[in-house]
Amino acid sequence: MFNLISSKLANSLTNELGYNDDKREIISYAIETALLAILGALLIVVLSYVLNVFLSTVIAAAFGGLLRRVSGGAHFNTPYKCLAFGAIIYC
Fold first, then answer.
1. Angle at Cα 37 formed by Cα 36 and Cα 42, nearest 5°?
2. If you write DSSP's letter for every residue of 9-71 in order, what string do you get?
3. 35 Cβ neighbours under 8 A, 6+ residues apart
4. Considering only CA atoms, which of 73, 41, 68, 71 is closest in space to residue 57?
5. How many CA atoms within 13 Å lie on the side-chain side of 88?
6. pLDDT tens string for the chain (91 positions)?
7. What is the CA radius of gyration of the chain?
8. What is this structure's pTM?
9. Helix axes 79-90, 21-50, angle to 10 degrees
10. Exposed (0-12), middle (13-18) or buried (19+): which is 48, by Cβ within 10 Å?
11. Any residues with CB less than 8 A from the CB of 9 and at least 6 apart, and which?
């Protein structure tokens, strides 16, 4: 679903700006990554609010996000599994 949305947005942007196919792929990937990050943040916020652990979860997610750049970690075969697992672990 996010792949389709990001592809359509990237196509309209790159057509308007006159970019080539390589730049279209890069922009599409960036849009998809941004959409998944927003979905992940929303999932963490909603789940932590439902479980009544909002403040501690937001603090843990903020520090986890800072450490994520240098930590590596486990990887899943789909981004949706990663989002669900991350939201559950943080909460």
1. 95
2. HHHHHHHHHT--HHHHHHHHHHHHHHHHHHHHHHHHHHHHHHTT-HHHHHHHHHHHHHHHHHH
3. 2, 5, 6
4. 41
5. 6
6. 778 898 999 999 888 888 898 999 999 999 998 998 899 899 999 999 999 999 999 999 888 888 776 766 667 888 888 888 888 888 8
7. 16
8. 0.75
9. 30
10. buried
11. 27, 28, 31
Judge whether 44 and 61 are in contact, CB under 8 Å: yes
Which tokens sit at 80? Answer: 């949706």
Residues in the chain: 91
Q: What is the pLDDT of residue 52?
A: 94
